[in-house]
Amino acid sequence: MRKNSSTHFMAGILIILFVGAFLLLTGRFLYIQATGEVNDVSLEEWAEQKRTSSYTMSAERGKIFDSNGMTLAYDRPTFRMYAILDEAYTGESEEPKHVEDPEKTAKTLAPLLDVDEKEILERLENGIEKDLFQVEFGNAGKELSQQKKDEIAAKDLPGIKFEEEALRYYPNGMFASQVIGFARETEVEDEDGNTVREIKGIAGIENVRNDILKGIDGHVTYQRDKYNKKLLDPNEVVTKPQDGDDIYLTLDQKIQTLLEDAMTQVDAEYNPERMSAVVMNPKTGEIVAMSNRPSYNPNDPSDVENWYNDVVSTPFEPGSTVKMFTWAAAIEESVYNGEEGFESGSYRPNKQMRAIHDHNGGDGWGTISYDEGFQRSSNVAAAKLAWEKVGTEKFLDYLKAFQLDQKTGIDLPGEVKGEILYNWPSEKITTAFGQGSTMTPIQQMKAATAIANNGQMVQPYIIKKIVDPDTGKTVEEKERNVVGNPISEETSDHVLTLLESVVNGENGTGKMYKLDDYTVGGKTGTAQIPNDEGKGYMTGKENHVFSFLGMAPIDDPQLMMYVTVKQPELEPTESGSAPVSFIFKNVMENGLHYLNINPDKENTKETKSIEVPELVGGDVSKVKKTLEKQGLRVTTVGKGKVVAANVEAGDNILANDHVILVTEKPTMPSIIGWSLRDVLQLADILQLKTDTSGTGFVVKQTIKKGTSLKQGDSLGVELLPPNEKQKKENSNEEENS
C-alpha cells in the first residue's frame, strides 16, 4: 500500500517538534545544572531557605521608674496556651505530640482554667473539623502566671503548648496614668514582611519614647530536617536582642501618691467635671507630681473618658492667677506704688469700652491701695495697671517675656499652647485678669518659676534620665534649663511678698490655703466658662474653674503647685476653694515634710518623714509593732518571717502611711476600706489577678479573710466612693435592724 504523502509530511513535523522539545529540555537542564538557578532564583539558596528555621528572641522593653527608682512600668512575664491538633506534628515519634483525646484534655483543663469543660471541648473539636493546625483558648488561655503554667504542664497533656509573652504592667494602677501612658501587644510587620507581636506604646511616655523603650529583637536561625529537628551541623546563627533603655522620671512616687489620693477623694465628694494638678520644683523645673481627672487604669484602659493630659493639652481662660504676672510687669517697669489708692468696683477706660467690674458684683471696697487690690483679687486694679500704668503694648511684651504665647517644650506628648487674645482694647484689658486669653496649667507654672526663682524662668521637664539596663550607664540626662529672665530678683521678692499677703493678709482671698508648718504664698483664680454657643459665659455659682497657684516656704519656695477644679458640686455654704484647698493643703504639707524641708513657722512639730528599716527576714509580729510605734498603719499577710513588703529599707514614708508585710505563708487579709492603690500593691507582691469594679474604697472582696494565697489567684473587689460607701453601710444596718 502506498503511503499518503501528507502522512510523511506530518511525521516529519512531529519528529522536528520532538527533537526541538528534547533539545530545549536538555538545554534547560544543562543551564540549571551549570548556573544553579531557576527563574533567577538560586536553587541552593532556595533549598537552604526551605531547610532553615528561625525564631525571634524578643527584647525586653525598658522599665519606667520614678526619681527614686520605684518601678512604675515593667514587662511581667506571662504565658499563652495553645493546642496542636495536626497529627502530622507527631511525625515518627512514639509519644503523641498533638491532642489525641479532646475529651480528656477538656476535662483536665477546665478546672485549671476555671472555665466550662464544654467550651474547651468545643474549641478543640471545631479545630479538628476545620483541619486547623492549632487552636487557642481565648482569654482563659492568656496571661497565665508561671505557677499556673507549671500546674498545667505537670498534667503532661499531649499537644498542649505554651508561648511566653510579656505583659506590660503598671503596679500602681491609676497613678500618673496620663503621664506614663500605656503599652499593649500589637501585631506589626518586621523587616522581612512577617507579622510579629510586639509591645507598642499607645499613650504618654510609653508612646512618645517608644523608640528607646522597645529595644531591638534578636534572631536565631538554624538548619533542620523535614521533621523540624535541628541537624547535627545546624549552621546556627544567633543575633542577641538589645533590651530597651530604662527611663527615670522626675515624678516622686510618694508625692504622686499623695496627689492621687487627694484627687480621688475630691472626685468622689464633689463630682467635678474635670480636675488637674501639677507639683513642681521651681528651682529646677522638675515635675514632682501630675494628675488629672477623669483618668484611667493603664492595666485595663477600657471605656476611657479622658485620654488627654489636661495639664499640658487643655488651654482655658485661667482667671485671676494671671494677676501675679500683671503686678510683676508693673513692678518691673517701676510704675507700681503699692500704697497708691484707686476706686474699686467698676472701671471704664473710655466711652467706647464696656466697664470692668470687680468680682463682688461690681460693688468693690471703696478706695483701696493696689497692694490691697492684689489681696482682694481686684479686676479693676489689674485693668488700671495694664491700661494706665504699664501700657497695653508694653504689657504684651511682658506676657511674651513670660512665654505665655508659646509651648513650654516639656517632654510630654500632646502639648498645646494657649492663645493671647489681644486684638481689641477690651481684650487687652481682660487679659490682665485672666479672661479672654487662654493658657495651660504648665504654661502658668513655667512663668511662675521666674517669681519663685529670683527672676530666672526654668523649663519644666519630666524625664530625669535614660539608662542602658545592661551597662548601667546613663545615656541621656536632663539638667536645669534657664529659658528666660523676664523680671529682676527685686521684682521677684516683691511679688512673693504680695503672694504671701493673699494667703496670710487680712483681706486675702487665699486664707483657706494656709498650712500648719509652712508659710504659703499664692494666687487664687475663679475663671468663667464660655457658653457652648461661644457667646458670653455660663452663669451660676458652680459653673467656674476654681484654681490656686501656690508655693512654699514663701521665703525660698521648694515646691510649687497648681490645682484646678472645674464645676464641682458645692453645698450652698461652700466656696469653690473648698475642693481646691483640700488637694493643695494635703499634698503640700505632707510633701514638704517628706522632702525634709524645715518648717518656717515657729512652735511646729518636727518632720513626719520616717525612714523604713530593714523588713525582710524579721518576725512579722515584731516588725509590725516597730512600725506601728512610728505611727504607721500595718497590715500583715500571714504569719512567720517577712519575705516582701510594699516599701523597701531606706525609703522615706510619712506617718499614717500603709505598710503591707507579706510572709512566707501568706493568707488573705481583710481589705475592706482599702484604696485601689493598696489593693494593686498587694496583688503585685503576691502576683494575684485582680478584677475591680467602681472607684473609691473597697466594700467587698471575693477571697475571704484567712484564705491561703498563691500566685495566680483571682481577687475581685468592689469599690465605692466614701459617701456611697456610707449609704450602703447605713442601708445594711437598716436591713439588719
TrEMBL record:
Keyword Transmembrane annotated: yes
Instruction: Identify the metabolic or biological route this protein is part of.
Output: Cell wall biogenesis; peptidoglycan biosynthesis
Q: Where does this protein reside within or beyond the cell?
A: Membrane
Q: Which InterPro entries match?
A: Beta-lactam/transpept, Beta-lactam/transpept-like, PASTA_dom, PBP_dimer, PBP_dimer_sf, PCN-bd_Tpept
- Using the UniProt annotation, give all residue ranges assigned to the region (Disordered): 713-737
Q: Which Pfam families match?
A: PASTA (PF03793), PBP_dimer (PF03717), Transpeptidase (PF00905)
EC code: 3.4.16.4
Q: Where are the transmembrane segments?
A: 12-31
What reaction is this protein's catalytic activity? Preferential cleavage: (Ac)2-L-Lys-D-Ala-|-D-Ala. Also transpeptidation of peptidyl-alanyl moieties that are N-acyl substituents of D-alanine
Please give the coiled-coil regions recorded for this protein.
none
Q: Say which family it is in.
A: Belongs to the transpeptidase family.
PASTA domain boundaries = 606-665, 666-721
- The name this protein carries in UniProt is serine-type D-Ala-D-Ala carboxypeptidase
Q: Does the keyword Lipid biosynthesis apply?
A: no
Q: Which UniProt keywords apply?
A: Membrane, Transmembrane, Transmembrane helix
The record, for SUPFAM superfamilies, names: beta-lactamase/transpeptidase-like (SSF56601), Penicillin binding protein dimerisation domain (SSF56519), Penicillin-binding protein 2x (pbp-2x), c-terminal domain (SSF54184)
